[in-house]
Design brief:
By secondary structure, this protein is of the alpha+beta class. The protein has one domain. It is built from 5 helices and 5 strands, in the order H-E-H-H-E-H-E-E-H-E. Strands 1-2-5-3-4 form a 5-stranded mixed beta sheet, sandwiched between helices. Helix 1 crosses helix 4 (83-107). The structure holds iron/sulfur cluster (SF4). Iron/sulfur cluster is lined by residues 45-47, 119, 121-122, 125-127, 132-134, 137-138.
Length: 178
């Protein structure tokens, strides 16, 4: 995964490291949190629950892969109320994702990408009236698949916390199939 990590760092991510897909655990409790809908994405697009499929279906998706990478974009915020900084971090993370996706897709056309938040590939999602416009490109979040992000990082020896007044967005690319 050395080359993939290099591509991720060149794409702008602050940190990246190898992911052993066998360490990923999907939890029903995380899916239950989606239903609370704090992020207001639940039931609004094809990449979030319930449309992204049952935990069993997500498990089947994940279990096809052996290796991947975890990617992170970290920002230093002025304080815990620095909403502008948080918004900018979201934009930067998205841009890093786009660059890395483009570069990695050439080498790994069957990769599974799990990002942060709901899918925002289209200006307006077709959900629920029409099928997804880009089923091969739509991006679910790690949480939508039932992952505790901190646990996945920890299991792969990648820090998640980089000090007070920092915020880190995390995603992963599942690259090599079994
Ligand atoms: S690719 Fe477009 S239609 Fe499909 S889930 Fe994403 S936003 Fe919705």
């Amino acid at each position: 995964m050395e080359e993939a990590v290099k591509i991720a760092l060149e794409s702008g991510f602050s940190h990246a490291g190898p992911l052993d897909c066998s360490t990923i655990e999907l939890k029903e409790e995380v899916r239950k949190l989606c239903e609370v809908n704090t992020c207001q994405q639940y039931g609004t697009n094809w990449a979030c629950p319930p449309a992204c499929g049952s935990l069993e279906k997500c498990t089947e998706d994940i279990r096809q892969y052996k290796e991947g990478i975890i990617v992170q974009t970290t920002a230093e915020l002025e304080d815990s109320l620095d909403f502008e900084g948080m918004q900018q971090l979201g934009i930067d993370h998205e841009e890093n994702f786009k660059r890395a996706t483009e570069a990695l897709r050439e080498k790994y056309p069957d990769m599974l990408i799990l990002g942060t938040g709901g899918c925002n590939i289209c200006k307006e999602c077709t959900y629920p009236d029409n099928p997804c416009r880009f089923p091969d490109k739509k991006v679910s979040s790690m949480e939508a698949y039932g992952m505790i992000v901190n646990d996945v990082c920890k299991a792969n020896n990648i820090p998640y916390y980089y000090g007070s007044n920092t915020l880190t967005y995390v995603g992963c690319f599942l690259l090599k199939k079994l």
